[in-house]
Amino acid sequence: MNNFYLEILHVDKHSKARYGYLHTPHGKVEFPMFMPVGTLATVKGLSPEELKEVGAGVILANTYHLSLRPGEDIVYKAGGLHKFMNYDGPILTDSGGFQVFSLAEKRKITEEGVTFKNHLNGAKRFFSPEIAIEIEEKLGADIIMSLDECVHYPADYEYMKNSVERTLRWAKRGKDAHKREDQALFGIVQGGEFADLRKYCAEELVKMDFPGYSIGGTSIGEPKDVMFQMIRNSTPYLPFDKPRYLMGVGSVDAILEGVQEGVDMFDCVLPTRIARHGALMTSTGRVNIRDKQYEEDFTPLDSNCDCYCCKNYTKAYLRHLYKCEEMFGKRLLSIHNIRFLIHLMEEIRKAIQEDRFLEFKEEFLKKFNNSKGF
After folding, report:
1. 268 exposure class (CB count in 10 Å sphere: 0-12, 13-18, 19+)
2. Distances (CA, A) of 318 to 74, 298, 332, 342, 370
3. Could you give the residue numbers annotated as active site?
4. Is the pTM of this model over 0.90?
């Protein structure tokens, strides 16, 4: 597909970090990038205009959840996700593979596919690689994912080996079923913490010649050092000239580690989810806005942030809104957290272009006190 390709403009001299543009049918976006998650065709609490204002490019929607409500047929009749949710930038949909992990107690895996127990009404919902592609084609995102099995951590070697083999068979079936030329279908590298399985899965997917590749099975409860090794066990075997997407990762240290290893795309519900619980990402580390110490703090949440929240409101006001359970407070906090990560990516891109990414990483992590999480 001529309207989807990676344009690499610079590679950092001291790492594998890359900078450039990802070209899509709905415009080009700079990478490395963080992609906000809009599970139900909306990033919770934020309008498309606000997403553009914070610098969002690609945003995500969830195939499994949208197939349940409103249903892919309704989205298709509306003209696809872009028109349905009034977002004119690039959109990515997953395949339901993560729900294989997150809804483990409500699903059954066979060679043919996955049978889910609908978490809304208990009805059965079957996903095969072909059905996942059919749904994603009706949703109409620019980038879509193959159906895979996201395996719990830890898993034994034999189970993971069999799972990787099935994921590869599913990837081939999904690729054969995919017909829309205006969508880029990514293969997903699995293999858990086993280096040989990661290598094998990546190499077999590359033989299938996907337009892009995802690294799956991370950020599901494994220690950070294990996650970082999973990344290092995957990226060396992926094509240099195609996008690399680390799925479900939104913590600062993991993003920086991924960029260092040549990852281009990241996504996570983390920034909006923790914002709704009063936890903020700032240039000096975590702020829990519910804490009493901010009751009379009339300074911005983060003096280094240029978002609407930080330019207009104080910690005292944000704490007041949070304590009163006002929706406006959750919106402001969500705007800030998403802008924080997108601004981080802007700084990362600048550092890569100036061949100082490793120096930037070290300096940022020094300032960013991560003792309380993120």
Report:
1. buried
2. 38, 10, 8, 21, 22
3. 94, 267
4. yes
